């Protein structure tokens, strides 16, 4: 698990004020980190073009050009003339070495380093810069972003300075950042990241699977998951099947019998009422209008852990259910926008949500601190109270109907087995993304059944 920061300016200032490190020293270490990455990956003599802007991000790039000059065939392209004091200082240093500059992007280069604007950029690019970035993207060179990709640039690797920034993990940036590596700035990363932060990045090694350590046990020892079966029975079956495969000792579908229910898998039980030994409930997936509100609350007249998904995020009923103590919500962006509207926390579009995902997750979790929120997306966000996590390990393999039903099954299975709501959300999310990562077929071919089948090999 790694720390995630809104900004690192305060961390830099601590280095200046308490550790007597200068801005110049930090910049030299940043440039050296980038240079070492290139030295390890590319042979001496390779062609490097560094495209720089006017601020300190550009200054990092100019310093990198100086460090590589002599061993590599380096060219500097000033997308903007240096304006910050550090950019002007670094330019004096490269000018003293007569490093070649160009006004146009080289047609042939092995490595392309983009250092135009940094994390503090909030504006829009002019037409000339937009065209330059398009030309950079079209280049066959290996593309590296300095600290954070300039909007529109598609990096294969982002070399970020000092610590991880939340902005690198917006959904819209997933295709832009490529592989992310953190560079030290003159002290160890552990010492640089001295201040606490509410956000953390999950790693695959953080997963805690429900392995069975006690031999003297029986099916009742591992919980009884109940999934309310609605109009689209298939969604409930996927959820229930995933719950069973992920360790729940018993799994029941609960609802009204019809022709569909005659064909449910033989491994799942079916009931009209909530079993007395139920330990967790999931509802919402494929629910439709199967139950009246009275019938629904009849199943929920208890304090059992509850997972809410899908259809319920478009119903006022969810506001009443939010009064429960042990509750997990697993919306995708459109469902979360509806939930924000129903709870009167915000009236926004999906596009507005995606631009400020972190902010709206925090807003919801602070309003409902007892609830655990799992917001689906290219990067999954999980929050409870004032503690938040990002799971960056998902992939487009999961962009298939039913994947969310499987995730719900993983979550509710862990709830049934005694995990807290936050533990269930974190570990089920990691398992879900790991299942997709482990899938060996074509990236377009993954199905919910493949995910369920893969659970046995986690």
In brief:
The chain is of the alpha/beta class and 458 residues long. The protein is 36% helix and 18% strand.
Question: How does this structure look, described?
Answer:
The chain has helices at residues 9-18, 23-41, 56-68, 85-96, 127-138, 174-177, 189-192, 233-245, 293-299, 317-321, 333-342, 350-355, 357-367, 403-416, 421-438, 448-454, and strands spanning 2-5, 47-52, 73-78, 101-102, 111-115, 142-146, 157-161, 164-165, 179-183, 199-201, 224-228, 250-254, 269-271, 280-283, 306-308, 327-329, 371-375, 380-384, 387-391. 45% of the residues are buried. The mean pLDDT is 95. It contains 16 helices and 19 strands. By secondary structure, the chain is of the alpha/beta class.
Question: Biggest sheet: strands side by side, in what order?
Answer: 8-1-10-19-18-17-16-15-14-11-12-13
- The unreliable regions are none
Ends apart, CA distance between termini: 19 Å
Report the average pLDDT across residues: 95
Strand content: 15-25%
Globally, the shape reads elongated
Overall number of strands: 19
Structural class designation: alpha/beta
The main pleated sheet reads as: 12 strands, mixed
The DSSP helix count reads 16
Q: Output the radius of gyration.
A: 26 Å
Q: What percent of residues adopt helix (DSSP H or I)?
A: 25-40%
């Amino acid at each position: 698990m790694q720390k995630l920061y809104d900004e690192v300016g305060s961390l830099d200032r601590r280095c200046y004020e308490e550790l007597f490190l200068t801005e110049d020293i930090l910049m030299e270490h940043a440039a050296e980190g980038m240079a070492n990455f290139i030295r390890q990956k590319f042979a001496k003599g390779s062609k490097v073009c560094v495209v720089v802007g006017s601020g300190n991000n550009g200054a990092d790039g100019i310093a990198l050009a100086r460090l590589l000059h002599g061993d590599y065939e380096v060219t500097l392209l000033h997308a903007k003339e240096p304006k910050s004091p550090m950019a002007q200082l670094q330019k004096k240093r490269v000018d003293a070495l007569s490093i070649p500059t160009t006004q146009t992007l080289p047609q042939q280069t092995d490595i392309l380093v983009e250092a135009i604007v940094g994390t503090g950029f909030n504006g829009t690019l002019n037409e000339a810069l937009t065209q330059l970035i398009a030309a950079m993207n079209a280049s066959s060179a290996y593309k590296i972003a300095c600290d954070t990709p300039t909007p529109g640039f598609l990096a294969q690797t982002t070399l970020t300075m000092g610590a991880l920034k939340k902005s690198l993990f917006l959904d819209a940036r997933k295709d832009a950042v490529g592989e992310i590596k953190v560079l030290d700035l003159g002290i160890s990363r552990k010492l640089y990241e001295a201040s606490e932060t509410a956000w953390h990045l999950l790693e695959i090694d953080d997963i805690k699977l429900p392995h069975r350590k006690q031999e003297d046990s029986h099916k009742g020892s591992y919980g009884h998951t109940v999934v309310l079966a609605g109009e689209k029975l298939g969604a409930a079956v996927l959820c229930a099947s995933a719950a069973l495969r992920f360790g729940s000792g018993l799994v029941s579908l609960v609802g009204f019998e019809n022709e569909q229910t005659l064909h449910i898998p033989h491994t799942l039980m079916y009931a009209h009422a909530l079993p007395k030994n139920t330990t967790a409930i999931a509802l919402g997936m494929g629910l439709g209008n199967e139950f009246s509100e009275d019938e629904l609350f009849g199943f929920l007249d208890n304090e059992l852990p509850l997972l809410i998904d899908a259809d319920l995020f478009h119903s006022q009923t969810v506001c009443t259910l939010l009064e429960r103590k042990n509750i997990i919500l697993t919306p995708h962006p459109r469902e979360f926008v509806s939930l924000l509207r129903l709870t009167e926390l915000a009236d926004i579009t999906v596009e507005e949500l995606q631009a400020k995902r972190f902010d709206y997750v925090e807003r919801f979790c602070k309003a409902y601190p007892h609830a655990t929120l799992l917001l689906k997306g290219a990067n999954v966000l999980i929050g409870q109270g004032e503690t938040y996590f990002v799971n960056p390990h998902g992939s487009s393999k999961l962009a298939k109907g039913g994947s969310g039903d499987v995730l719900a099954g993983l979550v509710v299975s862990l709830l049934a087995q005694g995990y807290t709501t936050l533990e269930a959300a974190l570990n089920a999310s990691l398992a879900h993304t790991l299942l997709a990562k482990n899938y060996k077929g074509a990236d377009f071919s993954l199905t919910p059944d493949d995910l369920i089948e893969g659970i046995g090999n986690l």
